[in-house]
Amino acid sequence: MKVKGSLTRARITFFFKETFRAHSKSEYREVFTRGIGEDKRGITGSMPWLYVRAFFVLFILFTVNVLILRFTENPFYVPTVTLFGGVTFSIPLFVLLYELYPKRDLNVFKLFSLLVIGGTAAGILAQLGFSLIDSVNGWSKVILSGVTEEVAKAAVALCAIVIMKNKNAYACFLIGVSVGAGFSIIEDMGYIFYYSDMSTSQFIDIRNTVYLFLDRGLSSLCTHILWTGIIGWAYAFFNSRYNAITLLFMVYSTGLHILWNLPLDGWMSVTGRVLSALLTLATNVAVISKSQFSTLADEFDITRLNDEIMQEATKLSERMRFTNAANLTFALTCTLLSAIMLALCCLPIGIDKTTVRYATCDEFVSALQGGYNLTADWGRKYDPDCKNAEVRYLDGETTPSYVIQETQIQGFDGTYFFDYYMSDPDRPYSISVELDEIPMRIPCVEYKFGDTSRWIFEVNDFHGYTFNQNDGSVSAVTDAESFEGYDLLIALVSAAVGVAGGCAVILVSFTIKLRRAKNE
Question: Which of the chain's termini has less CB crowding within 10 Å, N or C?
Fold first, then answer.
């Protein structure tokens, strides 16, 4: 028992050393050329390390592009933010799972190609399934969505396993992971683009963009990628002869998907997602551990490998520990500074504009219409007895082609103007209203809130709005009367200076200790 505990501590120490030490060009080359040509024999013998660098780089790039978008409002940066938002969490997880594969017979570029092609193919199959099946309510929609998406991903993953002819259970797990990662990235990019209102350059809700980035990114660590991975593993582990067991794993993944998306509210929804995440992670940890051990036992002497790890951990010098700690400190500092910059982008800080959040659509409509009681009567027909404010004739002065009628509606404010093309007098072409306090006509404009839309008179001027699907609230951007958010700006700048200063002090102390250790 004591030996087992020592081995566990040695593995953790060795893992930390390999993750945060400096890596040479040859080590980068080994990861990317693994599985190419004749470089397919034996095992890698290295701990995962590239995934951490991938995450830090992608997270910082996402932050920088969000910062540029926030302060320039240049819509050309929307695709870049969408791209980095979709891959920042999924790609590092994909790389980590690949690095945990001990054999050298699978190339990362081949898996990445499968990620792109397989994810796209799975998306096409899923959309074909959705086009053929109509959901009746929220529950049926969740069930059909889970079944359709899991079957589509599994079909592509199993076809890829057959084509690639790799019988190792972990390799087939990675093939499923690649398809799931591609599908997840496409879906996450779509959510970020659509639900943060990035589909229009009128207004981009940075706060909602960052929220979706975190929500979809963190959830990708325990959803599509791993759900498809265990199906590929089951197909290979049970030698593809026991199709019923593979089918059971597909049903299991579908159940986890449905549990994640259950149309519940409050703590019940959270409970369902937490339970789905825990079951997914527990299943995949067991699958990875079993596959790693089996693969290493076939290729290598486990006892000898464990002895080498314990020797490496014991020989870890004080200088190496300080170097690793310094690298970790620098990485965490960059991450914290990026998080502070994202907070700067999300919070209402600025000179020209400010964000106002309305709890409901009705509150937003009331604010947009200046509190006036207005109505858009799109069902009104042309009334020959009503006063015409303007008439346009098609030929001479006998046949009217276009008419604007002026009237008042009982119980509502203002004078209304209904525009008709006489070729279709059953419905107004446009509606506007004139108020006593405002010397101009105010048009009636359609606003969309999710799957519904409302016609609103724009009495007040908003630069843009975003409907928040999760709670039904609306975020609107309007002109700021003065500089907004002095206290928030001071707090964020102070936090950034504190983090940077603390990092500098720690790195200097580590440098001094490293020099002392070197001299000794």
Answer: N
Task: Say whether 388 sits in a helix, a strand or coil.
Answer: strand
Quote the strand ranges of 226-307, DSSP E. none
| CB 468 within 8 Å of CB 475 | yes
Give per-residue pLDDT as tens, 283-332: 999 999 888 888 877 666 555 555 555 555 555 555 666 777 788 888 88
Which residue is associated with the tokens 């002819």? 165
Whole-number CA gyration radius for the chain: 30
What are φ and ψ of residue 479, in 5° steps?
-70, 140
Q: What is the 3-state secondary structure (H, E, C) of 390-457?
A: EEEEEECCCEEEEEEEEEECCCCCCEEEEEEECCCCCCCCEEEEECCCCCCEEEEEEEEECCEEEEEE
pTM assigned to the model: 0.75
CB-based contact 14:312 (threshold 8 Å): yes
Between CA 417 and CA 371 the distance in angstroms is 20
Structure tokens at 272: 């369902």
> Which tens digits make up the pLDDT trace of 35-44?
886 666 667 7
